[in-house]
Amino acid sequence: MTNRKQLFWATTALMSGVLMAGAASAQSTASQAVEERATQVGDVVVTGARGPRAIEGVVAENNPKSRATITDRYIGTQAAGQTILNSINLLPGVNFTNNDAFGGAGGDLTIRGFDAARVSLTQDGIPLNDTGNYAIYSNQQLDPELIQRAAVNLGTTDVDSPTASATGGTVNYITRRPAKDFGFILQPSLGEYGYKRIFALLDTGEIGPWGTTAWFSASKTTYDHFVGAGGVDKMQLNGRIYQPLGDNGDFISVTAHYNENRNEFMPRVTLAQFKAGNAYDRDDYNTVRSQATAINPSNTGNIRGQSRFTLSDSLRLTIDPSFQYTLAHGGGTQTMSETDPQLRGNSTAAGVDLNGDGVINGATRVTLFRPNITNTHRYAVTSSLIWDAAEDHQFRLAYTFDWGRHRQTGQFGYLDANGFPEDPFAGRNGRPVKLPDGTILQRRNRLSYAMLNQIAAEYRGSFFNDAVDVTLGARAPFFDRELNNYCYQRDTFNAYCTTQVGTPVAGTDLVTFPVSSMNGSASNQYGKPRSFDKQYDAFLPNAGVTWKFAPNQSLYASYAEGFSAPRTDDLYDVVDVNPEPETTNSYDLGYRYQSGTIIASIAAWKTDYANRIVRTFDEAAGIFLTRNVGDVTLQGIDGQIGWSPMDKLSLTASFTYTDSEVKNDLPNGKDTSGKPIFIPTAGNQLVETPDWQFGGRVAYSIGKFDLGLQGKYVGERFSNDINTEVAPDYLTFDLDVRYNLASVGAGGSYIQLNVINLFNEEYLGDITTSTTGSAQYQLGAPRTAMVTLRASF
């Protein structure tokens, strides 16, 4: 720890004169309207496109908070079809570990030491995190060709952010507007591992008497995993209709999105297996096997409305309604005897003829498809009333409603003769396993409702001839969870769904069942089905100030409080631990320099984090439980710089230093004498949090060629809470080369080569962390090449 801190201060002294960046880029329609007003008209545009100053992946920010943004110019240089979360990986404070080179197999995100479930992800201001566990699914995001820009709030939210989970910051991306002229883009791509993708986009241009515009797009992607069996088969449909209302910026817009993924989970390795070598070509990965053991299908979609209305010269109203649909699961298989106790239910039958041979035989064991299915219907609206009280003073009042129905089931299904699922969603959509008492075989059966009512207010003012900008705000989320568990539950991961009558355990509210393949021999005690409600609320102030103390230079400071209500997984335990919401107090102090050739910013920050919730395995009880690890302190420094020393050349860089410290030991039940047991975590660092990260990119245009080389260094990461296992650091580089075809079509056509992991670094990406033992790791993608032809007409 001492050596790291000495290195930290030495590096800070060295780099403080050159690092780093910031752009006005917000979430909802209201936040965009507010920040567009705050952005100076006539900013120098280095890239040649209209908008805020930008040098490659660095955009000039003017808000009094730490934020970093990328635009479509940079996004377009990345691999075609890549998830937007990988494209923000070079931004300060951000670390995204992609499960493959193309972005269709998932990945994991951390920001300033906070994992993805503690980061709010939004598209045009609508929340995309799972309503139950707040997870982010990187492979279900919008096609990158349709994204205008993406912004990351480091450690804070916007005042109207529709979230009950964001303690670590926000990621928001904005969908492109339809073009005013008719156009068509056809974009095929080919790459290694059988990669094939086709993307098509149609812009209608202005149609009808009111200048209505629209676009419609479709894409199809297939490829094989670089390790293990299976691959990715992905289809996406999108469309947007945009209707301007006059010439003052008012509009109505409707956007629709549908994504369908069919893919298998990729195999993971231990640290020992990785260090032993040949982890990328182990024979047992590539043997032909039933892909049903790790299938991961999803159907997701949403419809988003956006609107802005000018009510008077000083009053504007924005309304953003949305609906989202999710049907997804990660499942495998389970082998059962035809006379397993759970197959009998409350009947006296011997069991179920699972293999269809007309005989029920206890010696016959049949492998069934066992899913964990989630089906969500979600309705939301975010609205704001914006009052320009004077030229330099603005007020906003916002309201958010977010209601989600979260259905979690596990209807068993059958496998076909080749060992593949008869239906990707098992017994829910296909043939279920029917039991003698008229029910079906399930592994879980839960219904949850999540409802967020949030009010927010904000004031923005400029003083001393616009030398000082002040922002004061607060949001107040009121969050309700209604939970219904229809099965017997051992812990949040282990249920026993049956109509059998259990045997009560004296002095408890538990029951036992005969040992079966569903409950094993470790424990067959379960809590009874139950329904209950939980309510959480908070008052979350924030404040920021920017001082433009010299031409092109400014200082900013911000303070914000964050809040994350417990997840459904934290509440469905057999033991009612009643966890408190996680809370954060975040402080930032930053410096920015912005000129026509340099955009730079640097920030020192600290976050006081209370009531951090983790899940641990209680060996004495034989169950997983939610534990409150108490307080955590995170602090560090990060920033970025963009420099264009000459025409057609740009250099960008970012760095991040993060220091985290867990303040308390982790409680873990009691021993046989009743004495509390603790896991030694006090003084340790958070898992998956590298102390150092560096990113950089060089882009140069010569003739018809655009060349780009970028790299990312990620330091060592602890993979368990007791800090006894460390994932090695790694450094990867990506190359992009574009040949512009100005004479083809209507301009904008090109051929582009992308090489991911140019120097074929072998490294460990996503980590399935552990409390005290060894972790499981996702291998980083090896060197992978692909080529894309974009024909624009």
TrEMBL record:
Domain TonB-dependent receptor plug residue range list: 61-162
Region (Disordered): 329-350
Signal peptide: 1-26
Topology in membrane: Multi-pass membrane protein
Residue intervals of the TonB-dependent receptor-like beta-barrel domain: 274-758
InterPro entries named among the record's database cross-references: Beta-barrel_TonB, Beta-barrel_TonB_sf, Plug_dom, Plug_dom_sf, TonB-dep_rcpt-like, TonB_rcpt_CS
Bias-annotated ranges (Polar residues): 334-349
A Pfam family it matches: TonB_dep_Rec_b-barrel
Source taxon at top rank: Bacteria
UniProt entry keywords in alphabetical sequence: Cell outer membrane, Ion transport, Iron, Iron transport, Membrane, Receptor, Signal, TonB box, Transmembrane, Transmembrane beta strand, Transport
SUPFAM superfamilies on file: Porins
Chain location of the short sequence motif TonB C-terminal box per the record: 776-793
Principal subcellular localization: membrane
This protein's record includes keyword RNA-binding: no
Protein location: Cell outer membrane
Record's keyword annotation contains Metal-binding: no
Family statement: Belongs to the TonB-dependent receptor family.
Name of the featured protein: Iron complex outermembrane receptor protein
Protein's organism: Brevundimonas faecalis
